[in-house]
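Re: weekly structure request thread

Next one in the queue (381 aa):
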Amino acid sequence: MQSRFDVFDAHVDTILRELDLGEDLGLAPGPVDTARHLDLVQGREGGLGAVVLAAWVAPHFVRGNEVLAKPDAQAGGANARVHAILDTAHALAARHPDQVAIVRNGAELSVARSAGLIAAILGIEGGHAIENSLTKLDEVHARGVRLMTLVWNNHLPWIRSCQTVPADLGFEVPAGLSDFGREVIARMNELHMLADVSHSAVQTFDDVLEASTAPVIASHSGCTAIRDHPRNLTDDQLRRLADAGGCVGIVFHGGFLDDEAAAEDARIYASPEYRSIREGEGAPQGAALEYAQNAYHQRIAKPMSIEVVSDHIMHGIKVAGIEHVGLGSDYDGIPRTPEGLENAACYPNLAASLERRGLTSREIEGVLGGNLRRLFSDVCR
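Done, posted below.
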């Protein structure tokens, strides 16, 4: 299915498949059991024009007592891991210059699209990747990073996540941003980087909006009014995000969007069949295990309708305004996808759903891509 809309997806974890599984995202999808959500082939088919490749660093790569470190913490730490992911993204672009280009600002995005290329924007998911260092923030910016999700589910000494603080964390967590956290925002503003408040605590959200002189993004979140989940935004947050010139990218993760889908996910996680994937001789290990579990999850879960995603989009439009809502699928970072949005070739199905809701072609173009292109171009100059 070919899309007549130019899609901008504000958050995918797909680049990790290249690094951890050795897949080539410039080629057609691999075996079904890997359940790949996005690659350049599917993206072109679905009308993908721009995408934020998120360099997510699992907390176990952090050494010391800064984050929820595990005994198997990898040598080199979080910053080394993020540079390995950035290496992988640059290698993808070098290997497939006829399909994708890494872009650093709105002008470069326009050039890439004029050449028929997918514009890849480099992002970081989780401020632990800069290891409490503005110098390391400067270094990833120099390598092309233009968006940082400030915090993931693990708290940092300078920023609070939306998750509950463990009693045995080992360091004090601020209510929102610490003084150093405000320095991070100031430096990101100077570097023309987008600050991303998905995963942030309520006070963190407030502090970021107060500290930032530029619009911010919630790259992959939903609406609390529909599904009360700490990863989602309240109506008040949606309004204030829009008032500050920012956008929300609506996520495709059923656990964030729908009570029934969340219950189904919990049932699968608790099932003996799901747990057995990690057991026995020849069981997948590491990242391969996670992808195998997600593939199983996708196969057996009761489907969640694409209309749930449209519900969140329409609510976001009602509260924040038509110019402040976009997409942040979290493809390849979620255990399963909604029915009709199985992979990046399916973006046109979402356009059709929104058309049934009464949106005009111009409004759909804004939600699927135009709003986020404007935000990126305004901030990343």
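The chain has 15 helices and nine strands. The chain has one domain: 7-262+305-379.
Next request, please.
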